[in-house]
Specification:
disordered N terminus, single chain, binds flavin-adenine dinucleotide, 452 residues, FAD/NAD(P)-binding domain, Polyamine Oxidase, Chain A, domain 2, five-stranded parallel beta sheet
């Protein structure tokens, strides 16, 4: 194939309808919606195309028996790049923060460490706490960061063998990065907690997490953008090493949308498939395929008439088989359940969290934890769903610290989302960060076209 041939499409068909946008965003997940809202607000005529019939991707919400059950992300960071994006695009940021946001179950007691920080938390577990805190302090200087190969669990072991401390670190890694402390580089953990906003403040959306993206979708449309749902992209088209647009199935027919800029939120591996590997350098395709190591998570969504967990927001554990946290949504967001009901989720990562695992055995361990943590769980709780998120629908497309670049070898084509995170970031916050970086790069090279 010569470089001038079109790639990523079936043979160009003259009967295919065509239209043009300034920018196209493929996928209405967190990364896609943050990018689209920023672009539309800057004045680009923006099109978002989404294969599913609802927005939010892995941070969306399903209705189950009148409950708003999140299919992925449950908490949204407050005070960081996410809230900043909402302010910049003038969208309502309706996040309710529990106070305190998180409590810890330590030696059978529920402990509030608000204000006391790491020192207070660790002092509840071990007399070695001070040493660990000094290790954390040292990590504030680059010279105090461990080498890349050391895992978070190995780093903790330098200071203590205390199982509770290891449990807390394991469950923190699970909650923020969707991997175990044995799988997360210590450098990532320490960079995150010493240099980043680190999810210190967070909350829930009363409409379920989908509400976050609905607010951004309204902003995109207010600013002249369009969002096409149930519209799978068949191909990202390129010519002479530059992107030319997409072919999308919309309203029962294929449409060619031309655009000099395409931002893909489907992850680099799926982006490569949409472009066609023959249009990309072999080394890049290999790099993407090698880096495609998604993690996994297990969520048990349950409800009850009685209040089962006495916390305003989240409860994490110093000791558990797999369970990293329980979130109590209805304490701050009663709208998420029918009147008189409480809604919870138990979140866990399997072992291993990267690679294959026995789903049934891992779910059984999470349920054992829930039975142990919640008295009479089987009789008092109604399980609404058990979701094992993995492979194509992972909690993180890349383990933090092993992300790919948001740029591609194709001019005008970028990736956003949780496979192209900045170093030591995670979840929807990282998606907001990738969107800002990519939109700034778009604005630097593709000025908003003059008034039409
Ligand atoms: C169980 C679980 C718990 C989590 N908890 C949290 C949390 O509490 N807080 C937090 O911040 N993060 C959390 N996360 C992580 C967070 O959900 C993800 O990091 C984030 O949602 C990823 O968004 P994304 O934009 O990268 O990708 P996605 O959400 O995967 O979005 C990609 C979109 O592209 C669409 N798409 C794919 N192919 C095509 C195509 N060919 N054409 C058109 N559209 C296409 C998909 O349908 C999807 O909507 C959790 C994740 C899981 C699974």
């Amino acid at each position: 194939m010569t470089t001038t041939e079109k790639t990523g499409t079936a043979t160009p068909a003259p009967d295919i309808e065509a239209t043009h946008f300034d920018v196209v965003v493929v996928g209405a997940g967190a990364g896609g919606m943050f990018a689209a809202a920023r672009l539309a607000h800057k004045g680009y005529r923006t099109l978002v195309v989404e294969a599913l019939d609802k927005i939010g991707g892995r941070a969306s919400t399903d209705e189950i028996d009148g409950f708003k059950v999140n299919n992925g992300a449950i908490v949204i960071e407050v005070g960081g790049i996410t809230e900043e994006t909402f302010a910049e695009v003038e969208a309502p940021f309706d996040i309710r923060m529990p106070s305190p946001p998180i409590l810890y179950s330590i030696k059978g007691k529920t402990v509030d460490v608000t204000g006391g920080g790491w020192g207070f938390l660790l002092s509840k577990l071990t007399r070695q706490g001070a040493k660990l805190v000094s290790g954390l302090g040292a990590a504030r200087n680059d010279s105090g960061l461990p080498e890349d190969e050391m895992s978070t669990a190995e780093w903790v072991s330098k200071y203590t063998t205390n199982e509770g401390v290891h449990g807390i670190f394991r469950n923190m890694c699970a909650s923020v990065f969707a991997v175990s402390s044995t799988e997360l580089p210590a450098k990532v953990f320490l960079t995150y907690f010493t240099r980043k906003s680190a999810f210190k403040k967070f909350g829930f959306h009363p409409g379920g997490t989908i509400g976050v993206w609905q607010a951004l979708a309204a902003a995109v449309e207010r600013d002249g953008g369009e969002i096409w749902m149930s519209s799978p992209v068949r191909a990202i088209t390129t010519e002479n090493g530059a992107v030319t647009g997409i072919r999308v199935h919309h309203d029962g027919r294929d449409i060619d949308v031309t655009s000099p800029v395409v931002i893909s939120d489907v992850g680099p591996a799926a982006t490569v498939d949409l472009v066609g590997s023959e249009a990309l350098p072999e080394a890049y395709v290999d790099e993407v395929r090698t880096a495609d190591r998604p993690c996994s998570m297990i969520a048990v969504n349950f409800a009850s008439r009685e209040r089962l967990v006495d916390v305003p927001g989240m409860l994490s554990f110093a000791s558990s088989r797999r369970l990293a946290y329980i979130a109590a949504f209805t304490e701050t967001c009663p709208e998420m359940a029918p009147a008189g009901w409480n809604l919870y989720v138990g979140g866990a990562i399997p072992e291993p969290s990267v690679g294959d695992f026995d789903s049934d055995a891992e779910v059984a361990l999470v349920l054992e934890d829930l039975r142990e943590k919640i008295h009479g769980f089987d009789d008092r709780a109604t399980i609404l769903s058990i979701a094992v998120t993995r492979d194509e629908w992972p909690p993180q497309r890349a383990v933090s610290g092993f992300d790919l670049s948001n740029t591609t070898p194709i001019e005008g084509l970028w990736n956003v989302g949780d496979a192209v995170k900045e170093y030591a970031n995670g979840g929807t916050t990282a998606c907001a960060e990738t969107a800002k970086i990519v939109v700034d790069a778009v604005a630097a090279s593709y000025p908003v076209p003059a008034a039409r």
